[in-house]
Structure formats: structure tokens, C-alpha cells
Design goal:
It is built from six helices and 19 strands. The radius of gyration is 20 Å and the shape is elongated. By secondary structure, it is α+β, with helices and mostly antiparallel strands. 29% of the residues are buried. The strands form five sheets. Strands 7, 8, 9, 10, 13, 14, 15, 16 and 17 form a nine-stranded mixed sheet that branches. The longest helix is centred in the N-terminal third of the chain and has 9 residues.
Length: 248
């Protein structure tokens, strides 16, 4: 960004690695951002010469390199970088990264698996934006069993909070007495969506693990471990792995 080139304030905040554009907009609307001593409003533009303060701290464009991290999140950790209630959070698992990163999207406390963290706000915004429809694959263990009617309901959509879930793909991977392992492919990201979908059709989720985001797989990454995404993986995530509603 050139010193005299004005850009939208939320974009500047995201480029500083503080939050995604959407979260930055929330910070502005909540009055947590000041520009040159004055409370900011949505629509403000800034340059690198302006003094931008978020939650009482001045932010500047980072000189550090962009980082794109894949973490295998264990159960019991919440997807946030700090928690006022003292709960375990994913920040503890990426302390050795070297740069300040934040999660792209969420996995609830009781879920595990692939989570992306970055300090690139533009990247995070593209990954999370609904128009890009980046699919995610989950391995879901449910109880006690599942029948054809329940499968059809999950795939065609169930009503949550007065709105039907988007169509998804469900495969039965393994079935035994009192326990079924499913593969679920979603391109929607509503709060605790899979757990609530299963509950709506009479199933209890015993375990939920995300194994893939777009065309990037978690593979054999150990639980609690992280690694940098390579250049090819970053490009895959920035592409469009969804075409006409079908997984490529």
C-alpha cells in the first residue's frame, strides 16, 4: 500500500492482521476504532500515514511475512485467540508460529480437525465469504443408527431457526451396532450446523472431525500440531472449488 493511497478502513485493519474485513466492520460499528484521534465510522478511508487505533492500541501494516497455518485442533479447545473465562483456546497451540495469526472460520469446542489460521485479512475474507461457497468435509460419528429417510433429510436440508439448511452430500462410511460413521460435505457455515442438523433428524453426534477445506486435505497432521500451507495449497483455497453446486 502506497503511503498516499487511501483504502477503506476495514481493509486496512484486515491487512494489519487484526481481523477479517467483516470483523473489522463490527469493530468500527461498535466504536472500538479511532482514526487520527476521532471515532471512526464505516466508510472511512485511510492511508499508511494515518494514525489508526483499535481498542486503544495503534496498528500499523506489518513488515512480517504472510502466514497461512493449518492446525489439527483437538477437542476441548475453543476457536479464539483469547478467552475471558480462562478456557483453553487455539492460541495456545500456535505460540511458535512467530507472527500473530487468527482463525479463519470456526470449529466448536467439542469438534476437532482442520482449522486455518492466518495474518492475511484479504485471504481470510475470501475464504469466509458466502459467495465463494468453499466446501468442507467432515467425518461424523452418530448414534444409534441411520436410515434412508434420515439420510435424505440431511442431504436435502432440515429447518434450523426457521431457515432450511443448504443441500449437502452424505456418505455412510461405516455402520455397526449402535454406531455409524458418516462423511458430510457442506458449503454452508452456520453455527454448530452439523450437530443441529443431526439432532433435528434424531441422531446424536458422538464425534465430529473436519478433514478437508476445499481441495486441501489435513492428511496425517498430528492432533494439536500445525504446519504452514504451501503455495499450491494457498492457491487452491483462493480458487473456486465449487462449480454449479458440485464438488470438483
Amino acid at each position: 500500500m502506497a503511503k498516499n493511497e487511501p483504502i477503506r478502513l476495514q481493509k486496512y485493519i484486515s491487512q494489519c492482521g487484526i481481523a477479517s474485513r467483516r470483523k473489522a466492520e463490527e469493530l468500527i460499528l461498535a466504536g472500538h476504532v479511532k482514526v487520527n484521534g476521532k471515532k471512526a465510522i464505516l466508510g472511512d478511508k485511510v492511508t499508511a500515514a494515518d494514525k489508526v487505533v483499535v481498542n486503544g492500541k495503534r496498528i500499523v501494516l506489518p513488515k512480517t511475512r504472510r502466514r497461512y497455518i493449518m492446525l489439527n485442533k483437538p477437542r476441548g479447545f475453543i476457536t479464539t485467540m483469547n478467552d475471558e473465562r480462562g478456557r483453553k483456546c487455539v492460541a495456545e497451540l500456535v505460540q511458535g508460529v512467530g507472527e500473530r495469526v487468527y482463525p479463519v472460520g470456526r470449529l466448536d469446542k467439542d469438534s476437532e480437525g482442520m482449522l486455518i489460521l492466518t495474518n492475511d485479512g484479504e485471504f481470510a475474507n475470501k475464504i469466509m465469504h458466502p459467495k465463494n461457497s468453499i466446501y468442507k468435509i467432515y467425518r461424523v460419528t452418530v448414534r444409534p443408527s441411520i436410515d434412508e429417510e434420515q439420510l435424505v433429510k440431511l442431504e436435502t436440508g432440515v429447518e434450523l431457526d426457521g431457515k432450511k439448511t443448504a443441500p449437502c452430500v452424505v456418505h455412510v462410511l461405516h455402520k455397526e451396532e449402535g454406531r455409524v460413521v458418516l462423511e458430510m460435505i457442506l458449503h454452508e457455515g452456520r453455527n454448530r450446523e452439523i450437530r443441529r442438523m443431526c439432532e433435528a433428524v434424531g441422531l446424536e453426534v458422538a464425534r465430529l472431525k473436519r478433514t478437508q477445506i476445499g481441495n486441501v486435505k489435513m492428511g496425517m497432521l498430528k492432533q494439536g500440531a500445525w504446519r504452514d500451507l504451501n503455495e499450491t495449497e494457498v492457491k487452491k483455497l483462493l480458487g473456486n472449488p465449487f462449480l454449479n453446486g458440485k464438488v470438483l
